[in-house]
From TrEMBL:
Organism lineage: Bacteria, Pseudomonadati, Pseudomonadota, Gammaproteobacteria, Lysobacterales
Protein name per its UniProtKB record: Transmembrane protein
Protein origin, superkingdom: Bacteria
Keywords: Membrane, Transmembrane, Transmembrane helix
Transmembrane segments annotated in the record for this chain: 6-25, 37-55
Amino acid sequence: MSALPGWVLPTAMFVVPVLVAVVVNRLFRHRRTNPNFVLAWFVAVCWIFAVVVILRQVR
């Protein structure tokens, strides 16, 4: 198995849930996605990966 570049997992963790939320909102709820949700998800993903990088450096 080839190693993935370091940017693939954080990008996927951010993009996939946002795209799912947009699709669900468009198809079932017929309204816009809340921009606060996108910002909150972006911040959460950044924090998760910051902790992962710090823990890798400590180990």
